[in-house]
Amino acid sequence: MFAAVLPTMTDPHEMMYSKLNERYYMTWKGIKYHMVTKKEIADYLGISRTAVSFVLNNVQNNKISGETRERVLKAAKELGYRSNEAQKNICYLLCNREFNDSRYSLLMEDLEEIMSEQGYNLLFMSIKGPSGISKLESFLERNEADGVVVTGLLDDKIIHTLEQSGIPFVIYGVVENETGNIVTPDSELIAKEAIQYLIDKGHEKIALFTGRLDLLIHRQIFEGYKKAHVENGLVLDKLLVQVINQEDGYEMAKRMKLLDIEYTAAFCVENVIQFGILQGLKDAGTEVPGQISLLGYGYTELVKLSNPHLSTIYFDRSEITKLIISRLQHLISDRNAPPQKTVLDCIRIYPGETVNSIRSVD
């Protein structure tokens, strides 16, 4: 249990402190005390670190319930939490995407953990549609952030607005405009590696369940899918390439069965699609991975919540976080640093339980 011990603040330089699990770290009047962190408040309350950060950073429109907000504020007060107002602020800017999409919320959690250790506060802003530009401009004009990490679905207007502000920023994701500081996944490579992984398991009829092909990331994934077929001398069956929305995995599984499109494995561009396909196949009486293998892209909470666990290929998120932070810190210290594009190659595979071999591999 946490036990708060708050001193009487007679000196403005005196420090509030809390005792946590009999561990002492920070000195106050010659005694070492542990300073309560956001993560520890989250663990204590049994809620996410992101929720605690949103409340303590006073993030608006974050869908945190009033009850949760009150619990966080009460715990922070009782445990002696104190924010460091001298810290620098980094803004995590999410564009045209929902925050409950764990591809983005998990990255924010990783950024917040490392940045807080290095003396930064992490702010959060979400913008959508045309009105988002004016909201962003207003925020940047207040000069509240020392740097920005921007991700989601970006367009030239968003990038131009950031450039005009003069505030250092790093883009994470796949964007058409590659003139700025970008940390980007090699989507073509990871798709090629994914298909090769399935081919090495003996699969030849491999479906691709992808997103809109007008988006660069999905075109890159399709190129990787094609290259793997060419390099292995396999004929690409266009019927096996299906464009799908996040929420339509279940229906896609039924559609493939109804149209009698045969495949022994599928590569799904998101875990949520993979999970929907899995449920659709199971309800149709198709064994996974006994009859059809499923490989996803990404590593979200669905991977291990699923039964069976999802097999997936992904970029190491800890490496992504380190690269983003390192680049942003360099830009903050040297505003004249030339733009740099960093292409991720830290590919990992979680074997899971949804991919099987269909023949012995020598």
TrEMBL record:
It holds the Pfam family LacI. InterPro entries: HTH_LacI, LacI/GalR-like_sensor, Lambda_DNA-bd_dom_sf, Peripla_BP_I. PROSITE patterns: HTH_LACI_2. Keywords: DNA-binding, Transcription, Transcription regulation. Residues 36-89 form the HTH lacI-type domain. It comes from the Bacteria. CDD domains: HTH_LacI, PBP1_LacI_sugar_binding-like. GO terms for molecular function: DNA binding. SMART domains: HTH_LACI. This is DNA-binding LacI/PurR family transcriptional regulator. It comes from Paenibacillus eucommiae.
